[in-house]
Design brief:
By secondary structure, the chain is an alpha+beta fold. The chain is built from 14 helices and 15 strands. Bound molecules: flavin-adenine dinucleotide (FAD) and iron/sulfur cluster (3 copies).
Length: 386
C-alpha cells in the first residue's frame, strides 16, 4: 500500500486525493495532506534540483556521518524533508528510493555544510607563491615571504617560528627570529608539536611590540585564548600586537614515533631533506629518491590530541596557510581579519608574493578536507580508509 508523503500513513491505491509530479503519482489520505504537498513539495523539489547540480550526496552519507555514529538527535528534519525517509525504531531509515539530492544531509542540524561552519570566517581566499628568487618553503614559501616583508618594512620586530634542532634532526625547536636569514632557516613544515608559546612570552617580556606568530591551529588557539580570557595573560598582550599566522593542520606525530618509523623503513632522519603530507601520503625526500608512504602507516604515531581536533584551517588566525586546494609549490591563503588582509595584500603589492584568487573547485578541496576533520570526532577510524 502506498504511503502518504506528508503524514506518513498508508493509503489505498485508489484514494481520490493524489498529485502527479515529475512523472510520479503521490497519494494522500486527505485533501489537507494533498494541499500541503502541492504547496510544499514543489519548492522542495526545486531545492533538490539546485543541490543535485552541485554534488551528489545520498542518504548513505547521512547514515555514515550522523546516524551510525549515534549523533542523530531524532529531530525528524530529514524525514520531514523527504518521503523516502521514515523514523522507524527510533532511527531515520530509507524506506524508498534515494536520488542523492543531498537535501536530508544539508537539512540535518548535526552536519556541518556551510563554508563558514567548515573553515570559519574569511574575507578572501588566494592561491599564492613567493616572488623572492631562490626562496623555498613547504609549499609556496608564502609564510616566509610575509615574514621577510614584515621584518624588512619594519612592520614586525620579530617572528615566532619553528626550526629543526641541530642535535636531533627533525625535532621542532620554536625560536624568536629577528632577521631575514633566521626566518628563511625556519621555512618548511615539521610534523611534530612545537611549543611556540614559550618564545612568544619571552619576546613580549623582552619588549618586542609587534610580533608575527606562526603556528598550527592549536597554537593559534592558545594565543587567541590568552588574548580573550580574563584569566589569561591579558596584561602581557596589552604590550604587544600579535599577527596570528595559522598553518592548516590535519595531524602531527610524536617525534620519537617519526624517528622509529623512519628507522623501520631503513632510513635515517638526518638523511631526510624534506617531508610533505599530500593527498593522504607522506612524502620523504632523501638525497637519492622520493619515498612515498600511505599516511595510515603513521597512524600509530599520531598525536592523540589530533584525533579530537576539528579545526583544519586555524579559524582563529588573522591569516591561514595550507597546501591543500592549490597546485604544488603554491600556498592556499585565507585572509580573515582586516589586519591579515591588508598585510598579505601589501606584501603582494610590494613584490614579495605572487597571488591570484582561489578558484571554486580549489576551495571545494579545502572544504572537503575541513569536513573530514570536523566529522572525525564522530568516526575516528574512518579516516584510515579515506
Ligand atoms: C604539523 C603541520 C601539519 C600540517 N598539515 C597540513 C595539512 O594537513 N594540509 C595542508 O594543506 N597544510 C598543512 N600544513 C601546512 C603546510 O605544511 C604549510 O605550512 C603551509 O602550506 C605554508 O606553506 P609555505 O610554503 O607558505 O610556508 P613556509 O614559508 O615553508 O613557512 C612555514 C612556517 O611554518 C613554521 N612551522 C614549521 N613546522 C611547524 C610546527 N610544527 N609548528 C609550528 N610552526 C611550524 C615554520 O616556522 C615556518 O615559518 C601543516 C603544517 C604543519 C606544521
Ligand atoms: S532527501 Fe531523500 S532523496 Fe535526497 S538524499 Fe536524502 S534520502 Fe535521498
Ligand atoms: S535530520 Fe539529522 S538529527 Fe534530525 S533525525 Fe535526521 S539524521 Fe537525525
Ligand atoms: S591536528 Fe589539531 S591538535 Fe593536532 S597539531 Fe594539528 S592543530 Fe594541533
Amino acid at each position: 500500500m502506498p504511503m502518504d508523503p506528508i503524514c506518513k500513513i498508508k493509503v489505498p491505491e485508489d484514494t481520490p486525493y493524489f498529485t502527479e509530479y515529475g512523472g510520479k503519482k503521490y497519494r494522500f489520505c486527505s485533501p489537507e495532506c494533498k494541499r500541503k504537498f502541492d504547496h510544499l513539495e514543489k519548492s522542495v523539489i526545486r531545492l533538490k534540483r539546485s543541490i543535485a547540480e552541485q554534488d551528489k550526496i545520498s542518504f548513505g552519507h547521512l547514515k555514515r556521518d550522523i546516524i551510525k555514529p549515534g549523533i542523530c538527535t531524532l529531530c525528524g528534519a530529514c524525514a520531514a524533508s523527504c518521503e523516502s525517509i521514515a523514523i522507524e525504531d527510533e532511527q531515520p531509515r530509507l524506506v524508498g528510493k534515494c536520488t542523492a539530492c543531498g537535501v536530508c544531509y544539508n537539512q540535518c542540524p548535526r552536519t556541518i555544510t556551510t563554508e563558514e561552519g567548515l573553515i570559519g570566517k574569511i574575507r578572501n581566499a588566494y592561491s599564492a607563491r613567493t616572488a623572492i628568487p631562490g626562496l623555498k618553503g613547504q609549499d609556496g614559501a608564502v609564510v616566509t615571504s610575509m615574514l621577510a616583508y614584515g621584518l624588512e618594512e619594519g612592520l614586525i620586530d620579530c617572528a615566532i617560528v619553528t626550526v629543526k634542532s641541530d642535535e636531533e634532526p627533525w625535532k621542532p625547536v620554536p625560536v624568536i627570529a629577528k632577521t631575514y636569514d633566521e626566518v628563511v632557516e625556519a621555512a618548511g613544515s615539521i610534523y611534530s608539536h612545537s611549543m611556540t608559546i614559550e618564545p612568544l612570552m619571552s619576546a613580549v617580556k623582552q619588549g618586542m611590540r609587534s610580533i608575527a606568530f606562526v603556528g598550527t591551529s592549536c597554537n593559534i588557539d592558545a594565543v587567541y585564548k590568552m588574548q580573550k580570557s580574563p584569566y589569561g595573560f591579558l596584561h602581557l598582550f596589552m604590550r604587544a600586537n600579535i599577527l596570528k599566522m595559522g598553518l592548516f593542520c590535519m595531524d602531527t606525530f610524536s617525534y620519537e614515533g617519526i624517528r622509529e618509523f623512519v628507522l623501520n623503513k631503513g632510513m635515517r632522519l638526518e638523511d631526510i631533506e624534506a617531508m610533505k603530507i599530500r593527498k593522504g601520503r607522506m612524502e620523504m625526500q632523501t638525497p637519492e629518491e622520493l619515498k612515498v608512504f600511505d599516511l595510515a602507516e603513521l597512524d600509530p604515531y599520531r598525536s592523540s590530541s589530533c584525533r579530537y581536533c576539528t579545526d583544519l584551517t586555524a579559524e582563529n588566525a588573522d591569516l591561514s596557510f595550507g597546501g591543500v586546494g592549490t597546485p604544488r609549490n603554491w600556498t592556499t591563503v585565507l585572509a580573515r581579519s582586516g589586519l591579515g588582509y591588508e598585510i598579505f595584500n601589501e606584501a603582494v603589492d610590494n613584490g614579495y608574493i605572487e597571488s591570484r584568487l582561489l578558484e571554486s573547485n580549489e576551495m571545494n578541496n579545502v572544504l572537503n578536507l575541513a569536513k573530514m576533520k570536523k566529522i572525525q570526532l564522530y568516526s575516528v577510524s574512518r579516516r584510515k580508509k579515506a
